[in-house]
Amino acid sequence: MSSPFPRPRTAAAVPPVAVGGLTRTWTPQGPLDVRRTLMPLRRGPADPAFRIDRDGTVWRASRTPEGAGTLRLRGTSAQLEAEAWGPGAQWLLDALPGLLGGLDDPAAFTPRHRVVHAAHRRNPGLRLTRTGLVLEALIPSILEQKVTTAEAYEAWRTLLHQHGEPAPGPAGRRMRVMPDARGWARVPSWDWHCAGVDDKRASTVMRAVRLGGRLDALASLPAREASVRMQSIPGIGPWTAAETLQRSHGAPDEVTVGDLHLPHHIGFALTGARRCDDATMLELLAPYAGQRHRAARLILLASPSPPRHAPRLAPNPPNRHS
């Protein structure tokens, strides 16, 4: 039986990168809010692979098909200056329009509710980022399965510090690039345990990285087809696939189902109901078919979450004897 995953392209030889890095200037078409567009890529305030300086400069450390790379973005929403270092520098600069929503089509969206219309009007620069890096989006999404956000962010931070590599260029002392597929495969079971990652999630990561570059090759497929192929990996369901494709593909219709809080937030914003399930959420978002993820993002930006009637989910205590 043939594999559902396309074979990755063979990487071309990469010329040495100058000490000063490679540069590119990019002018977006229409308004662009860089921070809000890229914030879904940040895995917590201490993410070793993502940083925003006080002056608004954005840094990203990535594992590209060409190798490790660091990207720095600064300037205004009218003109952005990008500089990149490492073997993946040129790849990052080539992918810059997608990263900043240049491949997104916000004009395809029509608000259907008052709260969505208000959010759409107040956030004209919101774009859907498209990194083109499936594995980079998939692994932290797996780490977020069935645990608190704080636990997942801590696991990501710990694993990158232990098994990643310093980011190329001037950010090397403060940022880390995630391991490649072979590097993830070499993470010992004890390090998963110490990072708070249970055997089920660690095993799912191991199954994914065995595919190596074939996973990143899914970036060339339409989101729906990529989702089906991704879910053929045991341990990856609709929630993880959607969270991944929202980032790797900039998929405007990949709404997250199976989330603990999102249905309640959507339901409260659109109907005032304090409790809502996935089926009701999808029914409410049906008028936005083709743009449901964008609608959900706007709702999250504009509307408060429903009041809580129970304590927040507590972190899972570590199993000291497993």
From TrEMBL:
Q: Which UniProt keywords apply?
A: DNA damage, DNA repair
Keyword DNA repair included in the entry's annotation: yes
Source domain of life is: Bacteria
Region (Disordered) residue ranges read 303-322
Entry keyword annotation includes DNA repair: yes
The residues forming a coiled coil are none
Comp. bias regions, Pro residues: 304-322
Q: What is this protein called?
A: DNA-3-methyladenine glycosylase 2 family protein
Species of origin reads Actinacidiphila epipremni
Q: What is the lineage of its organism?
A: Bacteria, Bacillati, Actinomycetota, Actinomycetes, Kitasatosporales
